Amino acid sequence: MIRKATLQDLDQLTALFDQYLVFYKKPSNIEKHKSFLKERMENNEAIIFLAFDDTKEEKAIGFTLIYPTFSSILLSKILILNDLYVDSTIRNNGTGEKLILKTVELAKELGVKLVRLRTAKNNIIAQGLYHKMGFVRDDLVYTYDLAVK
């Protein structure tokens, strides 16, 4: 089952989010991560879907964190699928695909023309899923980041 996360889900969501950040070599920090997620939810700055184990409906096993924004080029609202994570003990059961399909369903409901995501170059497994789901890697545009100090 996949549904939109609420503040009542914050503890389970935070545990998964913390695992996700550790996967990306960030330090574990439950309180900081919980505060970040709570702020996004309370301010309606993100849409978060949680996936639950079919056998134990109350146990969260994955999530997507989505940021609605706009594209000037498309003159349209777009969704940034910023984070996608499935518990490492239960991968390869279709949960990631279901979370992406839920995101696409949301995009259609909102009249969004594009769902964008990015992933690490060495995250080959995720790239395989994204290609399978119809995402096309953009080889024409570079992403640049500037750390503001």
Provide structural commentary.
The chain is of the alpha+beta class and 149 residues long. It has four helices and five strands; from the N terminus they run E-H-H-E-E-E-H-E-H. The chain has helices at 10-23, 30-42, 95-110, 124-132, and strands spanning 2-4, 47-52, 60-71, 76-86, 115-116. Strands 1-2-3-4-5 form a five-stranded mixed β-sheet, sandwiched between helices. A hairpin with a 7-residue loop joins strand 2 and strand 3. Helix 1 (10-23) crosses helix 2 (30-42). It is globular. 21% of the residues are buried. The model has no long low-confidence stretch (mean pLDDT 92).
Summarize this structure briefly.
With 149 residues, the chain is α+β, with helices and mostly antiparallel strands.
Helices and strands in order, then pairings?
Blueprint: E1 2-4, H1 10-23, H2 30-42, E2 47-52, E3 60-71, E4 76-86, H3 95-110, E5 115-116, H4 124-132
Parallel strand pairs: 4-5
Antiparallel strand pairs: 1-2, 2-3, 3-4
How many extended strands? Answer: 5
**Binned strand content:** 15-25%
Radius of gyration: 15 Å
List low-confidence stretches: none
Number of helical runs? Answer: 4
Going across the biggest sheet, name each strand in turn: 1-2-3-4-5
Residues in helices, as a percent range:
25-40%
Largest sheet: 5 strands, mixed
Structural shape: globular
Keywords:
5-stranded mixed beta sheet, 149 residues, alpha+beta
